[in-house]
Amino acid sequence: MVTPAIRMFRRLEGLFCVYKPSGVHWKLVRDSVETNLLKGLNATSSQPLPQEVRFLAHPVSETEAPKGLTLSASSVPVLSKHPLVTGPEFQHIRVGVGHRLDAFSSGVLVLAVGNGNKALNDLYRTRVTRDYTLEGEFGTATDDFSHTGRVVERSTYGHITQDKLDKVLAMLQGANQKALLMYSNVDMHSQEAYEMAVQGLLGPEGKSQPILTGLRCIHFQPPNFTLEVQCLNETQKYLRKVVHEIGLELRSTAVCIGVRRTRDGPFTLQDALTHHHWTASDVIQAIRQYHSKTNLKYTHTQIKDTALQPPEESTT
């Protein structure tokens, strides 16, 4: 028998994303979401207890003389099926985590429930890119490239201008574009490479070194600056190291004071659920919105492909 909790769980199966705050481990985020989903599932109205027929003795009053045992058939609930006896209907659900964020990073964290874990694996096989916002500060170098590490060097930064920074960023992006082509395992002079580049499918096969597909400065006010990065196969430590290397290229030093993921594949900050919305009802709504968005995109792709097909020749 399909219970209300099982019906709700079927609506929870899918992909959604949450906003992971800085200073919180991703495992704590996943466990908090799982606990809230279990509470929502087990709070649904339970099925009425099944009934069974039992022969019960009639009570005899003290004034009446005993005339033997009198039994009557009665329908009583099966107490062995009571929730207080069997425990909650759902005691564990599988919540999968997409590309992880370390404890000192924040932003979009993709999660999956139930059968959504298979869709999560399929999503990351399509070489999705991720966007980050990196906040840096010139003049200091630390042992772990972050502002919380042990300071190993201090330097001046008055000679740094935004034009010089943009030139270094362009140089780094060009080097990463060459790496992207090298790891693609596709002949760059072939028609296949051209079609993949047009569709944005050109990328490394399987695991590769971290690759920056886009890099630009969106804020510059020395000693502080902000970068917008698009990348593949990255880690947050690697992104902090990029900020450090940018400082060295500018004949100075730099540390990363903040890493925030703003997009992970199709999921953006607008889709991310904040801590107060990590509930079953909000997750169901987020999964429904994701499905509607992907179905709409698939429909538009079909229409576009149909329009590009040549008309069939009529035969007489």
Helix content: 25-40%
Distance between the termini: 59 Å
β-strand percent reads: 25-35%
Mean pLDDT level = 85
Largest sheet: 8 strands, mixed
How would you describe this protein?
One of its GO terms (molecular function) is pseudouridine synthase activity. Belongs to the pseudouridine synthase TruB family. This is Pseudouridine synthase II N-terminal domain-containing protein. It comes from Perca fluviatilis. The chain is an alpha+beta fold and 316 residues long. It folds into two domains: 135 residues, no CATH class; 136 residues, Pseudouridine synthase. It is built from eight helices and twelve strands. Strands 1, 4, 5, 6, 9, 10, 11 and 12 form an eight-stranded mixed beta sheet that branches. It has a two-stranded antiparallel sheet with strand order 2-3. Strands 7-8 form a two-stranded antiparallel ribbon. The longest helix has 29 residues. The chain is elongated, with a radius of gyration of 30 Å. The C terminus is likely disordered.
What's the structural blueprint in terms of helices and strands?
Layout: H1 4-12, E1 14-20, H2 26-42, E2 51-57, E3 71-77, H3 83-86, E4 95-97, E5 106-113, H4 116-124, E6 130-138, E7 140-142, E8 151-154, H5 162-183, H6 191-199, E9 211-221, E10 224-232, H7 236-249, E11 254-264, E12 267-268, H8 280-308
Parallel strand pairs: 5-11
Antiparallel strand pairs: 1-5, 2-3, 4-5, 6-10, 6-11, 7-8, 9-10, 11-12
